[in-house]
Design brief:
Layout: H1 2-18, E1 31-38, E2 46-53, E3 56-61, E4 66-71, E5 76-81, E6 86-91, H2 92-116, H3 119-132, E7 137-140, E8 146-150, E9 154-162, H4 166-186, H5 194-204, E10 209-218, E11 225-234, H6 239-254, E12 257-258
Parallel strand pairs: 6-12
Antiparallel strand pairs: 1-2, 1-11, 2-3, 3-4, 4-5, 5-6, 7-8, 8-9, 9-10, 10-11
Helix pairs in contact: 1-6, 2-3, 2-4, 4-5
Amino acid sequence: MGKSMTILAGLLAVLATTGADGPPTAVPGDFRLQVASYGLGKEPVYTEEIVVRSGRAYVLPSNSKEVVIIEPARGRLEILDVGRRIQAEVSFTALDASVAKLKASLREVAEGLERKGGRANEIEAKMARNLFEPNLAIGATSKPNRLRLTNPAVEIDAEGEPEPDAPRLSMIAAVLGSIARLGAFRTPQDLPPFAELEAIAALTGERRQRPTELVYLYRLAGPPRKFRRTYKLNPTLTDREVEAIARVDRLREVAPSVRYERYRPAR
């Protein structure tokens, strides 16, 4: 709760000084998801608050003055810079096209390496294919709510909790998938989102679980890359959170909207 209040207080201060995810089946009740992202240390590198209100998800990161507003029912999201008072809209169609382009690019790299031949090129080509076509094998672990998803390049320990609220689960799946695709849209040179998307789908699909922890280990060229994210559900919103979202909405009404190509990500 302390980290949540810090993020929301920071947003309120800025506003005061500057003046394959389908849509949810129904509008869920308001709720909040606290997300913490870790590297190798015990303390999170950054945190996010995902506040869902009236069918919209507001993503408030601790390391940026941007707010991402996701509307699965309308197939779009907005990126709002509360410091510069400017916003850009990105459609889910654009996100999907970006992900498809990234997959095609990685496939082209893999096929080029395979044509060259040689053991080193073959290993690198397989590594690339394991990133854009993860086809993760799903195995059980000693914990009933934990899955292990693996291929030769990626290992994911995915833990979840049963979620009986279908609209809420659908919203969580749509929002987390949108965040992963937006990351690939904005920084395609980073790790591809395909393994993450498979892990989210593995929990929220047939198992009907909302994620509580995802631990990733990528074995690529160089040292392994490991990171994890934790997710904590708060099923209701406080008055302070409702007011923070109301202020975001008021800023959205007056902030100029530009094409994403003209929108420079906040630093």
